[in-house]
Design goal:
This protein is mainly alpha-helical. Helices cover 39% and strands 6% of the residues. It has 2 helices and 2 strands, in the order E-E-H-H. The protein has a two-stranded antiparallel ribbon.
Length: 103
């Protein structure tokens, strides 16, 4: 789960996660599987389809200054729909490249 290990609190007190840190952990996850010749069985993401501003980064442009705009979580910060789709496409691209290398 690349989300839980990448949670931090901003100077203004918001509990958040950084998209780039989540992406880096996912890359490391796939790198390890590539090196070991194993198959990644799945990925768990904390996400919502809502247009929230709870995690920073990604193409959505959420930053520490805009967290307050739509920060509505009652517990842990979630990737918004745009951030979740962005990660999903990055994962799909990585899986496709892996398949092509194995062919």
């Amino acid at each position: 789960d690349p989300c839980h290990g990448n949670t931090f609190q901003t100077e203004t007190g918001y509990k958040t996660r950084d998209f780039d840190a989540i992406r880096a952990e996912l890359r490391a996850f796939f790198d390890v599987h590539d090196q070991m010749g194993s198959h990644p069985g799945g990925v768990h993401l904390e996400m919502t389809g809502e247009d929230v501003t709870e995690c920073t980064g990604g193409e959505s442009g959420v930053n520490q200054d805009t967290l307050k705009e739509r920060y509505i979580t009652a517990c842990d910060p979630r990737l918004n729909g745009s951030q979740a789709l962005e990660l999903s496409f990055l994962i799909a691209d990585r899986m496709q490249k892996r398949r092509e290398m194995q062919a």
